């Protein structure tokens, strides 16, 4: 149910704040078998503080769930706790709480001392639904078609094919979606193929390609280019195949392969390489709030090591004069600018090239922080001399 999904995502999005409110109200620690009551209280607190659920409904329905999970004895406890929260909701909301894990707040503050609070606030908002319009259709024409059926949108000035919808809708309502008219993709991610600028006759590698957004974008921008797309996960490659078929593209070769090795490679050099590296995904928390719960500090160093290994491996597959575009959906410098600086220092035939867009901040690559139009994203363009 959409309503249940909304409540679940909302509770996860504000988990750290809700937990700080609920935990002190539980005077006696809950037994392991009753930890579901803690989750139930978080769900009720979310409705009281952040959702538009009427107070009586939020409390009564949450209390009712205690009985449905066969814990009728806890109904009074749940009711009293939620009513305490409701009585104090104005005071609670008056004190800003960024609702992020402490370790991540510290990293963001260290990396962006004047901007970290705006990053945290953006992460707690819902991201817009953005479309990539097929170049054969034209963005303006598709925008007019959307308007004719009551779907409002606005073009993104940086991403040439992007339309940002005023409200998210089911893809089945998008004109000719299943015939390949458009692809749901954030504007930041759409810039990858735009920056790489595929040309006829080029052999282009899309490493770590799943679910295929950038792969299909490269292919539709230049049907005369040959796109080789690899991913280590066979199941995820199935999703790429589905997107290729929906968009009716014929210039993509799919292969299962680990970008950190050469077991998949036939030895033919690439003109261009897109490395959408495995990362912490800290730039897309507004789309995936569970990242705040699942990601741990130790993951960052592990990911940085994997990124460095893939960079070194793929660089040897690139032709002299060729271009490698490094991309992550992270906002952590250790995965982005610091990573590229270290690569340039150890790789004598690598040079940094400006991406040439009025987008993002930084001198070595460009770092976009999350905002209304864009997910948090990083790009670094490198050429082999």
Task: Write structural notes for this entry.
The chain has 385 residues and is an alpha/beta fold. The chain has 3 domains: 2-94, N-utilizing Substance Protein B Homolog, Chain A (Orthogonal Bundle), CATH 1.10.940.10; 130-184, Sun protein, domain 3 (Alpha-Beta Plaits, 2-Layer Sandwich); 187-384, 3-Layer(aba) Sandwich (Rossmann fold). Helices cover 42% and strands 16% of the residues. The strands form 2 sheets. Strands 5, 6, 7, 8, 9, 10, 11 and 12 form an 8-stranded mixed beta sheet that branches. Strand 6 (226-231), helix 12 and strand 7 (252-256) form a beta-alpha-beta unit. Helix 3 packs parallel to helix 5. The longest helix has 19 residues, at 297-315. The protein starts with a helix and ends with a strand.
Task: Please give the structural blueprint.
Layout: H1 2-13, H2 15-22, H3 35-49, H4 55-68, H5 75-87, H6 89-94, H7 102-111, H8 116-123, E1 130-133, H9 139-148, E2 153-155, E3 162-165, E4 182-184, H10 187-196, E5 203-207, H11 213-221, E6 226-231, H12 234-246, E7 252-256, E8 270-276, H13 291-294, H14 297-315, E9 318-328, H15 337-346, E10 350-353, E11 366-368, E12 377-384
Parallel strand pairs: 5-6, 5-8, 6-7, 8-9
Antiparallel strand pairs: 1-3, 1-4, 2-3, 9-12, 10-12, 11-12
Helix pairs in contact: 1-3, 2-3, 3-4, 3-5, 4-5, 7-8, 10-11
- CATH superfamily label of the largest domain: Vaccinia Virus protein VP39
Structurally, the number of domains stands at 3
Percent of residues in helical segments? 40-55%
User: From N to C, what is the helix and strand string?
Assistant: HHHHHHHHEHEEEHEHEHEEHHEHEEE
Classified by CATH, the class of the largest domain is: Alpha Beta
Distance between the termini: 55 Å
State the major sheet.
Answer: 8 strands, mixed
Low-confidence stretches: none
CATH topology of the largest domain: Rossmann fold
Name the beta content range.
15-25%
> What characteristic shape results from the CA principal axes?
globular
The secondary structure category is: alpha/beta
């Amino acid at each position: 149910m959409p309503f249940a999904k909304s409540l679940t995502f909302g509770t996860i999005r504000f988990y750290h704040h809700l937990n700080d409110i609920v935990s002190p109200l539980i005077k006696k620690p809950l037994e392991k078998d009753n930890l579901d009551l803690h989750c139930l209280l978080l769900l009720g607190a979310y409705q009281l503080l952040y959702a538009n659920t009427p107070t009586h409904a939020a409390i009564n329905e949450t209390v009712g769930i205690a009985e449905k999970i066969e814990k009728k004895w806890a109904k009074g406890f749940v009711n009293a706790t939620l009513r305490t929260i409701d009585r104090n909701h104005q005071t609670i909301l008056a004190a800003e709480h960024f609702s992020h894990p402490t370790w991540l707040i510290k990293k963001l503050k260290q990396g962006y001392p004047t901007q970290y609070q705006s990053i945290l606030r953006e992460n707690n908002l819902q991201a817009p639904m953005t479309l990539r319009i097929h170049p054969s259709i034209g963005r303006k024409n598709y925008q007019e078609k959307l308007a004719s059926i009551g779907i409002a949108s606005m073009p993104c000035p940086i991403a040439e094919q992007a339309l940002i919808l005023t409200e998210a809708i089911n893809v089945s309502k998008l004109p000719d979606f299943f015939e390949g008219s458009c692809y749901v993709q954030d504007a930041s991610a759409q810039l990858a193929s735009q920056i790489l600028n595929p040309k006829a006759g080029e052999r282009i590698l899309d490493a770590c390609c799943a679910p295929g957004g950038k792969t299909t974008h490269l292919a539709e921008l230049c049907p005369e280019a040959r796109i080789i797309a690899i991913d280590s996960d066979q199941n995820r490659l199935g999703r790429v195949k589905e997107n290729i078929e929906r968009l009716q593209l014929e210039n993509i070769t799919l292969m299962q392969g680990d970008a950190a090795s050469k077991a998949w490679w036939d030895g033919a050099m690439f003109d261009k390489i897109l490395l959408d590296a495995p990362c912490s995904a800290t730039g897309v928390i507004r789309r995936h709030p569970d990242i705040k719960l699942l990601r741990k500090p130790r993951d960052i160093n592990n990911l940085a090591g994997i990124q460095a290994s893939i960079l070194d491996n793929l660089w040897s597959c690139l032709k002299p004069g060729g271009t490698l575009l490094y991309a992550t959906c992270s906002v952590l410098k250790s995965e982005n600018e610091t990573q590229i600086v270290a690569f340039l220092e150890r790789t004598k035939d690598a040079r940094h090239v400006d991406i040439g867009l009025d987008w993002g901040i930084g001198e070595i690559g460009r770092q976009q922080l999350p905002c209304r139009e864009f997910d948090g994203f990083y790009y670094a363009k490198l050429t082999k001399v």
